[in-house]
Amino acid sequence: MSLPGIRSPPAASNASRSSAPSPSRPKFDSNLLRAYMKKLLSSTLAGAAWPELKDKDKVKQWCKEIGERVKERAVEIEPRGFKYMVTTQINENLGQGGRADLVCHWEDSDAVAQEVFANDSLICVCIAFAVRTV
Q1: Is the pTM value of this prediction over 0.90?
Q2: Residue 93 DSSP SS3
Q3: What distance, in Å, lies between the first and last C-alpha atoms of the chain?
Q4: Which of 22, 93, 98, 103 is most deeply packed, by most CB within 10 A?
């Protein structure tokens, strides 16, 4: 089924592509960042409990601290040639289920690392993207 006015671009033919091999581009080590994220989330949130309404800024502080530290570690792993985006979401754990996924279209050298932490009181999802700039 196609929608009127919406068309996909024509597929590129193999003849129009250059036959020269592309230079090898370094890949971001997402496994190294994922291991760091796992330790960071458990050390930052291990004894944490969902705050009372009067302390709601505590969740904002946790999100900001986790996001900044993950970004700093990504820059340490690969200081040049990538842009980094980190999202951190913390929700109260009320026993609800959840499902999240992501789809990306990018170069082979780009990467994503995702880590989830949960305890009886809260659930934290942290996702970090490393996108090649050059």
Answers
A1: no
A2: coil
A3: 38
A4: 93
